[in-house]
Amino acid sequence: MNLDNRIRQIIHERGFFRRINLSSTSLYKFDKLFTFLPLTQIQTLVINIEASSLVLSRFPYLPYLTTLRLYGLRTLKYAYNFILHHSHSLEHLTL
After folding, report:
1. What's the average pLDDT block by block, 10 residues per block, for the chain (95 residues)?
2. Where does residue 46 rank: exposed (0-12), middle (13-18), buried (19+ CB within 10 A)?
3. Deepest of 34, 43, 61, 72, by most Cβ within 10 A of its Cβ?
4. Closest to 17 measured CA to CA, from 3, 1, 31, 34
5. What is the rounded distance in angstroms from the CA atom of residue 38 to the CA atom of residue 23?
6. Cα within 13 Å of Cα(1), Cβ side
7. What does residue 7 show for φ and ψ, rounded to 5 degrees?
């Protein structure tokens, strides 16, 4: 088993990435991390001004997303679409 597969296995077994903070993640780094994220398990997502707002356009539907915190985004175009797409599951929204 190679190292990437072992890391993914550990991430899934231990439940990491249920709460995602992408505050200091550039779009390039996010694209690298995206392959490791168990998208169906994400419950909390935090993005601030240092992250690219395009990150939101890369996410598919997240069925268990209950908390979304967006701080100081430069444009709310992608955030608006993302919020509408997840409006029935969101319990807490901070802009």
Report:
1. 64 64 69 74 80 74 88 80 89 88
2. middle
3. 43
4. 34
5. 18
6. 8
7. -60, -45
